[in-house]
């Protein structure tokens, strides 16, 4: 994270990669290691948002499954056999799912216990040891809050309990219906609202905006991805200059989940 | 756009709002007006990406409908009557749609001629004159290409025909299944690929990445939204420092549309 000490001009947002975070292992104090990397790069500023990939959060929390220990079910063997997949990995996917949304040619789109709908229920074999798969954190909002609280104590010891000088977003890359490619989204949020709500405000022509609730946590996650590279394994980014009210409402990434009653696509 | 003349450090991306663009009217030369605003702010640099909102593109292209001229169909009247909506506006939505994906309580999610699936087939009444609605551009990729070509001639007159020193993205805010809130996405792309394709590359653990095609045009559109405010009516942003190959493959936003054969959610 090459820190520029000048203030970020109005109307500008800067996104920096956070480098120098070591390979994360189960039990590591991720907030401390992220804080060390941030401190070496000049620290954080009031109003910064830290985006952290799900992968390092899951690794620190020990959300890794050693495939030789998995006994696949008949269903997992059947699905895997149709698609030339590892039946043990399919078994882990089925265990992480609360609902199968689509299953075609070995592609499993599933709803997780958190309410997220994503490929393989978030189970992923990239950037982990061989014969290992990585699960989503049990509670990514709690993970984000733990990192936020620890980094706030370290970098803003003067902050009161109702103050949120730092926002934290845990990110993962999800596919979407109708559009090709995956994009980074927020699966954990702490210290900020995941939304910017323009409803009730009036535009330049006097028209009252009706449907303008922006999922800014997802947009911030996508912005962070631009400096995180899958291969180079940059596990975090700082977003600086985004105008969010540091003493305003906070929320969680669970707030981003459309309730099943309101969802037209379940 | 407060231009900083220092180079953007490696591992950093900067997003600037482009200010000083006048209110756009049908027939305006949008590329010239955007270019004037950029020139006043110090110009553009090789590798910059310009994000432009659909609204100003549509306005310049005259994609405005005066509602008093619309005679609603029986269907439009029926839909509008159930949801306390303007039957003329519903009629315009139905005319812009090639397929109704969902219709509940007056909310119409429709597929457009471009293949985009979005609320009201992209028809929108915000930031336009009273009794007027705005349609999506007929061909947003062509709109992006027109802006790209004009700004490249103006700011990079030395560039060869195969060079793309500037990328252009036309953006709009769409909802998504399963997640609350809208996010900015790319509906027009020129001068760059909408994807970053990591397939076949090998991660730090030797695992070959399989599903890692990132829809970076959508992520760039989301990043741009962070400095565009619905109310302040900032119609464009520059993204600087994003590493994309200026002489590499280009594509369009149509490439982001999942083909109906591959789409599990149509």
Brief descriptors of the model:
homodimer, 266 residues, alpha+beta, 60s Ribosomal Protein L30, Chain: A, CofE-like fold, 2 domains, 5-stranded mixed beta sheet, 3-stranded antiparallel beta sheet, 6 helices
Description:
2 copies of one chain form a homodimer. The first copy, chain A, has helices spanning 30-40, 54-60, 74-83, 87-96, 140-155, 216-225, and strands at 12-18, 48-53, 64-66, 97-104, 107-112, 117-119, 132-134, 166-176, 179-190, 196-197, 213-214, 236-240. The first copy, chain A, is an alpha+beta fold and 266 residues long. In chain A, a hairpin with a 2-residue loop joins strand 4 and strand 5 (107-112). Chain A is globular, with a radius of gyration of 20 Å. The mean pLDDT of chain A is 91. The interface between A and B is large, with 77 and 77 residues.
Low-confidence stretches of chain A: none
Structure annotation, total helices of chain A = 6
Strand content of chain A: 25-35%
Which CATH class of the largest domain in chain A is shown?
A: Alpha Beta
What share of the residues of chain A lie within helices? 10-25%
What's the quaternary structure here? homodimer
Please count the beta strands of chain A (DSSP E, at least 2 residues each): 12
CATH architecture of the largest domain in chain A: 2-Layer Sandwich
CATH topology of the largest domain in chain A: 60s Ribosomal Protein L30, Chain: A
User: What general outline of chain A do the C-alpha atoms trace?
Assistant: globular
Overall pLDDT score of chain A = 91
Largest interface: pair, residues per side: A-B, 77 and 77 residues
Radius of gyration of chain A: 20 Å
Supply the number of structural domains of chain A. 2
């Amino acid at each position: 994270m090459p820190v520029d000490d000048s203030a970020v001009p109005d109307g500008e947002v800067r996104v920096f990669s956070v480098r120098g975070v070591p390979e994360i292992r189960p039990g590591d104090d991720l907030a401390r290691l992220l804080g060390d990397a941030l401190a070496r790069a000049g620290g954080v500023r009031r109003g910064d948002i830290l985006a952290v990939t799900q992968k390092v959060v899951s690794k620190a929390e020990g959300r890794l499954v050693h495939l030789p220990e998995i006994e696949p079910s008949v269903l997992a063997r059947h699905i895997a056999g149709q698609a030339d997949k590892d039946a043990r990995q399919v078994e882990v996917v089925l265990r992480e799912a609360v609902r199968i949304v689509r299953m075609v040619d070995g592609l499993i789109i599933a709803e997780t216990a958190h309410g997220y709908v994503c490929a393989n229920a978030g189970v992923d074999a990239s950037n982990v040891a061989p014969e290992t798969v990585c699960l989503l954190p049990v509670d990514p909002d709690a993970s984000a809050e733990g990192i936020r609280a620890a980094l706030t104590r370290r970098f803003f010891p003067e902050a009161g309990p109702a103050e949120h000088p730092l926002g934290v977003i845990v990110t993962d890359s999800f596919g979407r219906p109708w559009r090709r490619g995956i994009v980074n989204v927020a699966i954990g949020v702490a210290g900020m609202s995941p939304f910017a709500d323009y409803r009730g405000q009036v535009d330049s022509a006097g028209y009252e905006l009706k449907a303008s609730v922006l999922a800014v946590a997802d947009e911030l996650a996508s912005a962070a991805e631009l400096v995180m590279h899958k291969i180079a394994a940059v596990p975090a980014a700082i977003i600086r200059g985004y105008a969010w009210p540091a003493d305003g409402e906070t929320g969680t990434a669970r707030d981003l989940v459309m309730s099943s009653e309101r969802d037209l696509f379940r």
